[in-house]
Write a structure and sequence with these properties.
215 residues, mainly alpha, 0% strand
Length: 215
């Protein structure tokens, strides 16, 4: 096996991928696979390129090949779950996220995406548990708090929702959706002055916030 040639091809592929030259990256990976057909990392890399090319069928085959060779490849299960999520196959996505978490219980992004998936099938308590776990692992991601705030709002837990939207703003003072969502909570509580202040701030950051929130 020409290990040096494979390494050079993969290095070129990664560089091309970073520069968003996806076709060039794919060409280099395909050349590497003509030399080495049993390395799961090569299939994972090609799957990632195909995913970014939105060729989900090819990406699925690559990630499935990666886990066939290495059944403990949590990242490939995660990416397979993301593909199912993109295709709106939510139950299948959750099953794949379950497997990824079984293999890597400290992957906060998997908990986050599984929570998003659960929220789409109205499993609000399940989504809440996953957002809690994601925040337990990584407590400085504003998206985690914002999405958990939305779940608290749906569960009519207004104080908790307001706290999460406030935490989101603390972490990212330009997070327009968090101001807008907190304004709705203030309205629910009858605090019209605070609501008006947050609506104003949200529109300063994003003049189209009302339309964006309706989508």
């Amino acid at each position: 096996m020409n290990t040096t040639k494979i390494e050079n091809l993969l290095e070129n592929a990664k560089k091309a991928f970073e520069e968003n030259n996806l076709k060039e990256a794919l060409d280099n990976i395909n050349q590497a696979l003509t030399i080495e057909k049993n390395d799961p990392e090569i299939y994972f890399l090609r799957g990632t390129v195909n995913y970014n090319l939105e060729d989900f069928d090819s990406a699925t085959k690559d990630f499935e090949k990666a886990v066939e060779i290495n059944p403990n490849d949590a990242d490939s299960y995660f990416n397979l779950g993301m593909i199912k999520f993109e295709l709106n196959k939510i139950e299948e996505a959750i099953t794949l996220f379950d497997k990824a978490i079984e293999l890597d219980s400290f992957a906060e992004d998997v908990y986050f995406l599984r929570a998003n998936a659960k929220s789409l099938i109205d499993d609000l308590e399940g989504a809440l548990a996953d957002y809690n776990k994601a925040i337990e692992i990584e407590d400085s991601d504003e998206e985690f708090y914002y999405n958990r705030g939305l779940i608290y709002f749906e569960l009519n837990k207004m104080e908790e929702a307001k706290e999460d939207f406030s935490k989101t703003i603390e972490l990212d003072p330009e997070f327009a959706e968090a101001y807008y969502s907190r304004a709705i909570v203030f309205e629910e509580e009858g605090d019209d002055a605070s609501a008006a202040k947050d609506y104003k701030k949200a529109k300063e950051i994003n003049p189209d916030i009302e339309n964006d929130m309706e989508e």
